[in-house]
Design goal:
The protein contains 5 helices and 8 strands; from the N terminus they run αααααββββββββ. 22% of the residues are buried. The protein folds into 2 domains: 105 residues, no CATH class; 108 residues, Immunoglobulin-like (Sandwich), CATH 2.60.40. The protein has an 8-stranded antiparallel sheet with strand order 5-4-7-8-1-2-3-6. It is of the alpha+beta class. A hairpin with a 7-residue loop joins β1 and β2.
Length: 255
């Protein structure tokens, strides 16, 4: 007999209606066939859980035909009710097994997606850690220069610390106790240059309810050209030149 035929006998055995000759042949086959043993165990579990009301899945036509053929032996030709009952039970068990396989495939796909997300988060954290390590090393450099910015009339409790790296022409700025900016506004940092009449934008940033923020500035003018730094509140995204002179924090580079 083929594996498909043994599987048909396995479901009959799970239902407790396999005949002696078929049952003996099945047991001899199961002793040497691991896949069929696994199928027999699945059908046994299905028979136990079938009463719990799991929805069956419609099987392919060739499966239905194999069921009818498997239970249509000579000794059963006169028991149509038995044939219908056995076939219905088998199809229900087949549906339970298919439903279990689909659920397993869904769980596997979900787990793969979760692993991919965790891997992406791990990569992001590693990149953030590398950046943070670089910034800490820059702050500890002997050539780093510190500029203090103090709160102005609009935010007297606010402050900022600028860590300037002249050789790399970059700076890290950390703000404290600034009011949270409205959704349609952005804070904008300005460099007041000694060699130009107009301020130079050093970037925009947002402040949450914590009152804290930070910004990295690249391609700074040389240190001798930086006269002062100041922060204003501007339209979202920033502007080319300040729309007002209401500074939130400000400080001289000579301090």
């Amino acid at each position: 007999m083929t594996h498909e035929e043994f599987e048909s006998i396995a479901v009959l055995d799970a239902l407790g209606i396999a005949k002696g000759g078929e049952l003996n042949a099945l047991r001899l086959h199961l002793a040497a066939c691991m896949p069929c043993r696994r199928v027999r165990a699945e059908y046994s579990d299905a028979a136990t859980l079938l009463a719990r009301g799991l929805d069956p899945v419609e099987p392919p036509r060739h499966v239905r035909a194999q069921v009818i053929a498997a239970v249509s032996g000579e000794e059963r030709r006169n028991t149509a009710w038995w044939l219908a009952t056995a076939a219905s039970l088998f199809l229900a068990l087949w549906g339970w097994r298919e439903l279990g396989l689909r659920n397993a495939q869904t769980r596997e796909a979900s787990q793969r997606a979760e692993i991919e997300l965790l891997q992406m988060e791990k990569t992001r954290l590693e990149q953030h850690n590398d950046k943070l390590s670089s910034e800490i090393a820059a702050l500890a450099s002997a050539g780093t220069r510190t500029i203090a910015l103090s709160g102005q009339e609009l935010a007297p409790k606010a402050s900022a610390r600028v860590f300037l790296e002249p050789e790399r022409r970059r700076a890290l700025v950390f703000f404290h106790d600034l009011p949270a900016n409205p959704g349609d506004k952005s804070y904008q940092l300005w460099i007041i240059r000694a060699d130009q009449p107009k301020p130079m934008s050093a970037g925009v940033f947002d402040v949450t309810s914590t009152g804290k923020a930070s910004i990295a500035i690249e391609n700074l003018p040389v240190a001798t050209e930086i006269k002062a730094l100041a922060v204003t509140l501007e339209p979202k995204g920033g502007v080319e030149q300040p729309t007002n002179l209401h500074f939130y924090v400000a400080g001289s580079a000579d301090m």
